[in-house]
Amino acid sequence: MTLSTLTQQLDTLGFSGFKAALQRQSEDANYMQLSFEERLYGLLEAEQSERTQKRIKRLLSQAKLKERQASLELVEYSAKRGLERSQILSLASGEYISKRQNILITGATGVGKSFLAQALAKQAIFEGYSARYYRVTRLLEELKLARVEGSYTNTLQKLSRINLLILDDFGVTPLKSDELNDLFEVIEDRTLSGSTIITAQLPVKEWHNYLGNATIADAMMDRLIYSAHRIEMKGESMRKLMAQK
After folding, report:
1. How confident is the model at residue 135, as a pLDDT?
2. CA distances from 134 to 82, 87, 140, 175, 186 (A)
3. Distances from the Cα of 55 to the Cαs of 58, 161, 165, in angstroms?
4. Is the distance from CB of 136 to CB of 169 less than 8 angstroms?
5. 56 Cβ partners below 8 Å, 6+ apart?
6. How far apart, in whole angstroms, are the C-alpha atoms of residue 128 and residue 111?
7. What angle do CA 82, 83, 86 make, to 5 degrees?
8. pLDDT band per the 50, 70, 90 thresholds, residue 244
9. What does the alpha-carbon distance between residue 71 and residue 116 come to, in Å, rounded to a whole number?
10. Contacts of 11-17 spanning 24+ positions with Cβ under 8 A
11. Residue 203, phi then psi, degrees to nearest 5
């Protein structure tokens, strides 16, 4: 069998990583010193790496993150900011997602809540989880449109299948009755299926009053707060500090 025939078969199977590695092996005589098993392992490893990179690229595209540079490596840890490196790094493994736990990030505008939320989301993607970023107002608009188009239930199902949902800027504007119901449906459907990161200027203790409807507020807070990781960010606006620099 010729190399050309073999590469054609690899193209048919979609083994692009395997094919590229095989081409490298055929052009480097040093590989001939390796055993068959060693060469085969290298080919399979290359294919696995290629597939992992493609999956990460696809998940990043689907996540719709706004902070493209968001990364845990760029987070500035300090007591003044209310960020403990040990807490953030403990979340980096994504174990909270496998346990269906939430993360609630609060703090004044500009302190870096959204950046941290998206950095955690990106890290989750690197760990193999799916993620999706929404500003709360945009999510509610999509749900309203989905109801009009008759795809409301399908949209909720798609949201429930996402491993990690980021809801940014919670509590910025008052919620109408139907919007409160929609938000509760999203939270309810995700209670046993995934994790949610919520960022808000409002302290968690004020969320109940903000939601207004006592019955829905009780149910939503119970689902959000149970076993949630809380991060209360402090300090000056990072946007202001960056502008000064």
Report:
1. 97
2. 24, 24, 9, 16, 12
3. 5, 17, 18
4. yes
5. 125, 126
6. 28
7. 140
8. very low
9. 8
10. 15/47, 16/47, 16/50, 17/46, 17/47, 17/48, 17/49, 17/50, 17/51
11. -60, 150
Mean pLDDT of 175-185: 95
Q: Which domains does the chain have, with CATH numbers?
A: 3-61 (no CATH), 64-244 (3.40.50.300)
Contacts of 92 (CB under 8 A, 6+ apart): 72, 120, 123
Statement: residue 175 has pLDDT above 90: yes
At 219, list the tokens: 């149910």
Residue 119 identity = A
How many angstroms separate the CA atoms of 197 and 15, rounded? 36
Using one digit for the tens of pLDDT, what is the confidence trace for 142-166?
A: 999 999 999 999 999 999 999 999 9
Eight-class DSSP state of 174: P
Dig out the tokens for 199 from the structure. 């960022």
List, for residues 74-108, the tens digit of each pLDDT value.
998 887 888 888 899 999 999 999 999 999 999 99
Q: What is the mean pLDDT of residues 1-10?
A: 74
Cβ atoms of 229 and 96 within 8 Å: the answer is: yes
What confidence tier does 31 reach under pLDDT thresholds 50, 70, 90? confident
